[in-house]
Amino acid sequence: MKQMMMMMLIALPIANAFAGSDRDATPVGVWTAFNGNDGSLRALIEIRESKGILSGKIIKPYPLPGEAMTCEMCTGNLKGAPIQNFPIMANVKRDGDCWDGGQIIDPNTGDIYSVRLTLIENGSKLLVRGFLGFSLFGKSQVWVRKVD
Predict the structure, then answer these.
(1) How far apart are CA 61 and CA 44, in angstroms?
(2) pTM of the model
(3) Torsions phi, psi of 53, nearest 5?
(4) Is 120 helix (H, G, I), strand (E, B) or coil?
(5) What is the residue range of 113's domain?
(6) 60, 46 Cβ separation under 8 angstroms
C-alpha cells in the first residue's frame, strides 16, 4: 500500500505536466501544424470561438509537391472546396481541461473524425486527437501556437 501511494505521488507531477496548466487559456489563436511522418510544415490553422463553440480553418496551407489544393475526397458542399480557408474543425466545446464534442476533417482524404483538443506546455502547444468512436482508437498531432 505504501509503495502504491508513493507511485501515485510520483505520477501526479508527470500527469500534470501534460495538462493545460492555465484554466483560463484556450485554443483560440493561430497554430502551426506539421506532418506527422517527417515533421515538415503543413498548415497554419486559425481557431476561433463564437458563443463558447470553437471552429477552425486552414488559413495558409503548405502543400506537398503534386498535392491538390482542393478537397476532392470531401463530400457534400465541401467537395472541391479550396484548402485555403478550408473549415477543418467545427462544434468543439470545452469539457473541463480539454475541448471536444466536435469534428475535424482531413482535407486530403475527406475523412471526418471526432476531435479532442488539450493544451500542453502552458498553452504553447495543442494536442489534437482525431478518432472514430473512442479516443483510444485514433491519431494525435501536436500543433504549435504561432507567436507574432
Answers:
(1) 6
(2) 0.82
(3) -115, 130
(4) strand
(5) 2-145
(6) no
